[in-house]
Amino acid sequence: MQIDDWVLFQIFADRSSAEVTSARLTSEQVPVRIEGHSLENAREAEYWLFVHRSLVHRARWVVAQLPPSDAELDFLATGKLPGADDS
Fold it and tell me: Can you name the CATH fold of 3-78?
């Protein structure tokens, strides 16, 4: 892939936040690239997350989705609705 194929998608203050978003996008088949950039004082850095130009719209859609709630995760794990009796 050429450098022109990548678009700056988000900027993060720390690498771990960039990696969390990167993992989420990657799991949805959106190619990503993270670059670290030093700020003027050279003691701080920003982490730039790039996505492939052809998948920017998909990346926006993925990031806009809310993560599942604890109740939704419980239902997916057990198949039982919250507050439902076992009887």
Answer: Alpha-Beta Plaits (3.30.70)
